[in-house]
Amino acid sequence: MTDLYDRIGTGYSRGRRTDPRWMARVLAALGTAESVANIGAGTGSYEPPNRSVLALEPSVEMIRQRPPGSAPAVRAAAEALPLRTNAVDAALAVLTVHHWTDWRAGLAELRRIAPRRVVLGYDTRVHGDFWFVREYVPEIAKLELSRPSAPEIAEELGADLVTPLPVPGDFTDGVFPAYWRRPDAYLDPAVRRSCSALAQTDPTAVERGVQKLREDLRSGRWHERHRELLDLDEWDAGFRLIVSEG
Q: For residues 52 and 95, what is the distance between their CA atoms, to the nearest angstrom?
């Protein structure tokens, strides 16, 4: 993960902005935890305010983009956290497990350092069937299906609670399916650079798909094919908030 985000993470903080609706759900999942270790913390999008937070992030590029006043950050990989057993009240991992070299070892570390674990993951099958993948860049499906899926993460953690996190139509965090009813956004190279699924896929395949999407938007075919999406306020893209205790 270190090399990945040192390569593709430039400008990440501009495209990946905290959405207050998801933030509220993350805060609720953390409960009364006063000390939190944020694993794979990135730029700190969902770090809780007014609590003692330590960010652990392997990428120098991501740490560099953390805003002034952010929680202190230490370079570390999830699989070998430099914290003692039960060092914090809660371990938080937001959209990071799918990038870990050994995700099971990383989850074991979360269990070791905290009695409460909060993980935001996603169902890779749902992402693999996202219209952008299915109709424009099917090569992404192979990548997504190679990643640990939310049900696997929940099983590994012995989850007590798994809650769907729908994506609002005006979502502010540029996760890959964020623009499910705003397809024009995928024509923007800056938007695509903020999505690891696109950044890790063959650029030729992505450019081919984007060109096809551009043509479908120009002709109106996309809107004809997906008109039912335009009536929705939110859509289940497979994101799951997983909570494990004990």
A: 21
What strand order describes the sheet that includes 52-56?
A: 73-74, 52-56, 35-39, 90-94, 116-122, 239-245, 161-164
Whether 112 contacts 138, CB under 8 Å: no
**Pairing label, strands 239-245, 161-164:** antiparallel
For helices 103-113 and 150-157, angle between their N-to-C axes, nearest 10 degrees: 40
Rounded Cα distance between 149 and 178, Å, is 18
Short-list 116, 109, 28, CA closest to 76: 109
The domains located in the chain, with CATH, are 2-245 (3.40.50.150)
- The DSSP-derived string for 102-139 is SHHHHHHHHHHH-SEEEEEEE-HHHHHTSHHHHHT-TH
Model pLDDT for residues 132-179, shown as the tens digit of each residue: 999 999 999 999 999 999 999 999 999 999 999 999 999 999 999 999
Digit-coded pLDDT (tens) for 109-123 = 999 999 999 999 999
Specify the DSSP element, H or E, that contains 245.
strand 239-245
Which DSSP state fits 82? S
Q: What is the pLDDT of residues 174-217, one digit of tens each?
A: 999 999 999 999 999 988 888 888 888 999 999 999 999 999 99
